[in-house]
Specification:
alpha+beta, four-stranded antiparallel sheet, 15% strand
């Protein structure tokens, strides 16, 4: 029985409440021993998870090196976390591969519901054993109110799964399970107690580096060298998840007549948005997962007859006539025009409007366009004043961008000093650059041409 530090038992320190039937039953119950476990037996927990319906499961110590900076976010979500469960649910391959998005999206949604149900059931079982736990809902995005100032998910299921030995990320940025391949969805449970043993990361990457995901992506988001253009993927594939909805709302607001609205948004697009709002947001592609041949259960047809695999799985997605969404001036726009002239190009706004300097810096990595940066090698120092005071260095070199806090010892090609609110207004086109320069809300030290070249590399 616990004491209050003065030798009094927990029940005695409660005064009159100590005689309440619930309190008396708690202190007399042998069930209290369940909450005094020092560690959870791993094999018992594995059996519990598999019995609940998981297709595979792994376990991670909170202090595992693979978690890195994710550890801080995990503790922000639930400070009592000591260990994590990573869960896998399989998807039906042929539905995901089907060019009809209704089939693929129904499979995504049902598998997601299955993951949430089994995660909730496992937590309920753990609570019955006196073990506190929290399950992280499967879905993307999950905390959209933070976007685009910071990432819209609570805990990275992918990082946890890799640490738990359930696979590694392929060049398409999805986790590839050694047996089930890319046709999986992931879930995570946080627990308050350590385990007797933990899983270890897989000692090889199931990714075959076949580059089929590169060839199937309708917007060229995956480069042959492995670079991932998040902006291109988000603008098209997540059109009805995140920024695309804001763009759709803007079209409604800016249209003064039904005719103007129909010119901005086709009836088919309007119906698709309604369908997403009513029945669950639809992915526009996910072809990178559909064509991936990795995984012991998946690889057979690819190895036995590669030409048939290309004809049956890859070609139907490449040849599909569909609307592809791109940001004007982006690498994706040029890619679709050249690679898929039979697809209908729709130029849209990504919806990425930073509301803060933190959001601006976070978004630079997301909206960077490597092809637009070809030939530019420059270092920019930003010094923000006013409501948000911070410094940052942005380096563009060899078609890659790095963003670091503070100023570096490296000499800058352009120094930008700006009032933080004025800079956000400038990004949102609510203040002209010339006016901001004249009023000295924004000051440039270096060639103004470099700022124009900087803007070319980042499109929203």
């Amino acid at each position: 029985m616990t004491t209050d530090g003065k030798g009094n038992s927990g029940a005695q320190s409660l005064g009159q409440m100590a005689n309440h039937p619930t309190v008396r039953k708690y202190y007399s119950s042998s069930g209290r021993e369940k909450s005094e476990l020092s560690a959870i037996d791993t094999e018992w927990l594995r059996a519990l998870c598999l019995d609940a319906g998981a297709d595979d499961v792994g376990f991670v110590d909170l202090e595992h090196a693979e978690l890195g900076s994710e550890r801080e976010r995990i503790l922000q979500c639930w400070p009592r976390t000591r260990s994590l469960i990573s869960l896998v649910v399989r998807m039906n391959r042929e539905d995901v591969r089907n060019p009809a998005r209704s089939l693929a999206n129904t499979e995504f949604h049902h598998a997601g519901d299955e993951m949430n149900d089994l995660s909730r059931g496992i937590v309920r079982r753990l609570e019955g054993e006196g073990i506190r736990a929290v399950y992280i809902t499967m879905g993307f995005p999950m905390e959209i109110q933070h976007y685009p100032n910071r990432r819209p998910w609570v805990v990275s299921h992918k990082l946890v799964a890799v640490a738990a030995g359930l696979g590694h990320m392929g060049i398409h940025r999805s986790v590839i399970h050694p047996k089930f391949g890319s046709f999986i969805l992931l879930g995570t449970i946080l627990m308050e107690l350590p385990l007797t043993t933990y899983s270890q990361p897989l000692d090889y990457n199931p990714c075959l580096s076949c580059k089929l995901c590169v060839s199937a992506c309708p917007v060229g988001a995956i480069a042959p060298d492995g670079y991932f253009n998040f902006s291109a993927c988000m603008t098209h594939n997540y059109r009805e998840f995140m920024g695309g909805f804001q763009d759709w709302v803007d079209s409604v607001v800016k249209s003064s007549t039904p005719e103007q609205f129909t010119h901005r948004v086709t009836p088919g697009e309007n119906a698709s948005m309604w369908q997403s709002l009513s029945f669950g947001a639809n992915y526009k592609a996910a072809y990178c997962m559909a064509v991936c041949p990795a995984g012991e259960d998946v690889i057979g047809p690819f190895l036995e007859n590669r030409q048939d695999f290309l004809k049956d799985v890859v070609k139907p997605l490449q040849e599909k006539k569909e609307t592809v969404y791109v940001v004007p001036g982006s690498d994706a726009e040029g890619y679709v025009t050249k690679r898929y002239p039979h697809k209908t190009l729709r130029r849209v706004h990504s919806g990425l409007n930073p509301q803060s300097i933190e959001g601006f810096l976070y978004g630079l990595r997301i909206i960077f366009q490597p092809e637009k940066a070809r030939g530019l090698n420059a270092t920019y120092q930003f010094r923000f004043t006013g409501s948000e005071t911070l410094n940052a260095t942005v380096t563009i070199k060899d078609r890659r961008v790095t963003v670091t806090r503070g100023t570096t010892s490296e000499s800058a090609d352009l120094i930008v000093t700006a009032d933080s609110r004025a800079w956000i207004k400038f990004l949102a086109n609510r203040i002209y650059l010339i006016w901001a320069l004249v009023t000295r809300q924004i000051r440039l030290y270096g060639s103004p041409r470099l700022l124009l070249e900087f803007g070319r590399c980042f499109v929203r």
